[in-house]
Amino acid sequence: MKPYRSLLFVPANDEARAREGAAAGADALILDLEDLVVPAAKPKARPFAAQLISRLRAENPGLGLFVRINPLESRQTWLDLEHVVVPELDGLFLSKIYTLDDIKRLDALTTEWEARNGVREGQIEYLVPGETAECIEHAFEISKGPRVATMIGASTSGDIAHALGYQWTREGVESLYYQSRILLANRAAGKKHPIGGCWEAADDIEGLIADARFHRQLGFRGALITHPSHARHVNEVYTPSAAEVARYRELIRRYEEAERDGRGDFVFEGKFTDVAHVKTAREWLALADAIATLERPPAVDA
């Protein structure tokens, strides 16, 4: 999975909002066919979304494009996949996952529509939100399932709050356990880019930034967002700064210098440092390089 920092939800049948999100600098769009499209509008939204994916890809080659499909229990999943599994799509944002069996069932359906619609087999990857209690319980199995690029530990007042019965707070204490569990499941499965979020208060930019910083500190590497104005702030938080890059480069230089002298440890910035710290430094530098490939030129006003 690419190192997406900001993944913006937009209705799958609203081209204007999708374009606004792309112009705002979101690394990826999640075209929502579930909650953001009313039931009566879904039949027309599906082919519209497929066409929109093609247009957005042609105009934004580096933009991540995902579709949030309706859950298996809705009996609409097949209809969603029929239309949106197209060559320009990066992946699917799943809904209401309970166990690994759900992932396996979806994998079979996705494989069928890849074959029917001329998509390379295995191209479509899954973003799996922990939005049911069962999903959180089985997170370690699910994270190793077919096509799962990452699980998402999103703190919201939506489905997961309903499932667990908590009340969302600005501080997020009520969701810390399950987010940490999903983070650990990701890491145990070798997923290096777990996604957190999602900050719902559109006008509370101070809260958004604080929340993103906290999730980065926990170990998350990107966030779901619900408003285009949040993209640049989240991107900034999850991008290693020039000072951090310089620090990591210096740490590696010092380690290599110590290694040449036959030493495996040294003092850096007053702290004991060894190869474990170097591994972290190299991982952050690799992330910075990968993020640079996502950067797109700002939109030009017409």
Structure, described:
- This protein is of the alpha/beta class.
- The protein has two domains: 6-237, Alpha-Beta Barrel (TIM Barrel); 242-292, no CATH class.
- The chain is 46% helix and 15% strand.
- The protein has helices at 15-24, 42-59, 77-84, 100-116, 133-137, 139-142, 159-164, 176-188, 205-218, 231-238, 242-260, 275-292; strands spanning 6-11, 28-32, 64-68, 91-93, 125-129, 148-152, 195-199, 222-225, 266-268, 271-273.
- Strand 2, helix 2 and strand 3 (64-68) form a beta-alpha-beta unit.
- Helix 9 runs parallel beside helix 10 (231-238) and helix 11 (242-260) packs across helix 12.
- The model has no long low-confidence stretch (mean pLDDT 94).
The H-and-E topology, N to C, reads as EHEHEHEHEHHEHHEHEHHEEH
Domain count: the total is 2
- SSE class: alpha/beta
The residue-averaged pLDDT reads 94
Please compute the radius of gyration using only Cα atoms. Answer: 20 Å
Indicate the CATH class of the largest domain.
Alpha Beta
pLDDT < 50 runs, ≥5 residues: none
Main sheet, how many strands, which sense, barrel? 8 strands, parallel
CATH-defined fold name of the largest domain = TIM Barrel
CATH H-level superfamily of the largest domain = Phosphoenolpyruvate-binding domains
Brief characterization of the structure:
The chain has 302 residues and is of the alpha/beta class. The protein has helices at residues 15-24, 42-59, 77-84, 100-116, 133-137, 139-142, 159-164, 176-188, 205-218, 231-238, 242-260, 275-292, and strands at residues 6-11, 28-32, 64-68, 91-93, 125-129, 148-152, 195-199, 222-225, 266-268, 271-273. An 8-stranded parallel beta sheet has the order 6-5-4-3-2-1-8-7. Strands 9-10 form a two-stranded antiparallel ribbon.
